[in-house]
Amino acid sequence: DNSSEFITKYRTCRQQVRECSGEADHHEGMSSDDELTPTDMTEFQKSKDNVLEDSRKVFEDVHADFCDIRKILLKFQEWKEKFPDSYCDAYISFCLPKLLNPLIRVQLINWNPLEQNFTELEEMPWFRAIEEFSNAKNVSES
Q1: From which residue to which does any coiled coil extend (predicted)?
Q2: Considering the chain, what is the average pLDDT of its residues?
Q3: Distance CA 124, CA 126 (A)
């Protein structure tokens, strides 16, 4: 990950400058990224934009039925309704988190809960799709 590597190098450089200057009142973890120079911020933004652009290409050659969480969960719901024994024997509830993990991670790449106008997890489409699937699962089991 280029952006985290860049930030780590920058923080190490700042720490070395503080040590050389004898700055004793610094408390680790208390520094702010506001200390980044405009050039550093430009480099960070460029690196971040590159990561986001690459993330958009991850599923570009995948059929829509296999990269849309709602569609995937609908397939599993159909399987469960038509063949409940097979569904249960396949331990699908244990497989789904691993199956959906890459799809969710791609959608969370740009998510930052520290920004002022961030989207709550509960409001994201993938979260609602999983919630609907879980509610349908509970209804059919009862």
Answers
A1: none
A2: 81
A3: 6
Beta strands, E only, 1-142: none
Domain ranges of the chain: 61-136
Chain centroid offset of residue 97 CA: 14
Q: What is the 3-state secondary structure (H, E, C) of 12-43?
A: HHHHHHHHHHCCCCCCCCCCCHHHCCHHHHHH
Inter-CA distances, 9 with 12, 94, 105, 142, Å: 5, 39, 25, 55
Classify the C-alpha dihedral 78-86-68-100 as positive or negative. positive
Q: What is the pLDDT of residues 77-109, one digit of tens each?
A: 999 999 999 999 999 989 999 999 999 999 898
Model confidence at 138: pLDDT above 60: no
Q: If 0-12 CB within 10 Å is exposed, 13-18 middle and 19+ buried, where does residue 133 land?
A: buried
